[in-house]
Amino acid sequence: MVIDARTAVTGVILAGGRAERMGGQDKGLLLLGGEPLIMHGIRRLRPQVAALLISANRNQDVYRAFGCPVVGDDPQMQFRGPLAGMLAAMDAAETPYLLTAPCDSPLLPPDYARRMWAALEQGGSSISVAFGEGSWQPVFALLPVALRDDLAEWLAAGQGGAGRWLQRHQPARVAFADGPALFRNVNTPEELARLEVELQLI
């Protein structure tokens, strides 16, 4: 059997935050182009991986209706940011690798998983992280599930910051030049409205 992203990787769409700057609305369920943000991610990422999970701490029954298993943060880690969602997904994944993407990135490229996997195949690192717009994008990461205990210890020690934890493992840098919308974080109603306009222009 060929080992690649389609056989070795579980994708997870991170939708577990409080979205406080969005007035507390569940960001993954906000409409963009007439459908929830989470559906854009599901449609683009599911064909690229062996399995797909949704990380969510609210409205879990609603998210299950989209046809993917839903995992919530450990109660002691709840709302600790994307690392808590990554940890929960590691516990649920049945593949050796986990590929992450935030729920508010509706323009994932169709070769996202392949490009992240290719960086690992080149050797020298066990993790790959997207790089674009002049900086690392830590919520776009491919990492081995074997780092589960390391991540759990990091969080249990009160540490946070996905970027800081990933950089400890000297990740491979995966350059993306697919336009700024790929790494757009939709944190406010105004940003959602601007992204709606950008989608109409694509």
> In terms of per-residue confidence, which ranges show pLDDT below 50 for 5 or more consecutive residues?
none
Q: Which radius of gyration do the C-alpha atoms yield?
A: 16 Å
- The total of beta strands comes to 9
Write down the overall geometry.
globular
Integer count of domains: 1
Strand order of the largest sheet: 5-4-1-6-8-7-9
Total count of helical runs of at least 4 residues: 8
The percentage helix is 25-40%
Distance between the termini: 38 Å
Strand content: 15-25%
CATH level 3 topology: Spore Coat Polysaccharide Biosynthesis Protein SpsA, Chain A
Instruction: Output the helix-strand order.
Output: HEEEHEHEHEHEEHHEH
Mean pLDDT: 88
Structural class: alpha/beta
CATH superfamily: Spore Coat Polysaccharide Biosynthesis Protein SpsA, Chain A
Describe the model.
The protein has 202 residues and is of the alpha/beta class. The chain has a single domain, classed as Spore Coat Polysaccharide Biosynthesis Protein SpsA, Chain A. Helices cover 33% and strands 21% of the residues. The chain is built from eight helices and nine strands. It has helices spanning 5-8, 37-45, 60-64, 82-92, 112-121, 148-156, 162-167, 189-201; strands at residues 9-14, 31-32, 35-36, 51-55, 70-71, 97-102, 128-132, 135-144, 172-175. The strands form two sheets. The chain has a seven-stranded mixed sheet, with helices on both faces. Strands 2-3 form a two-stranded antiparallel sheet. Helix 4 runs antiparallel to helix 6 (148-156). The longest helix is centred in the C-terminal third of the chain and has 13 residues, at 189-201. It is globular, with a radius of gyration of 16 Å. The mean pLDDT is 88.
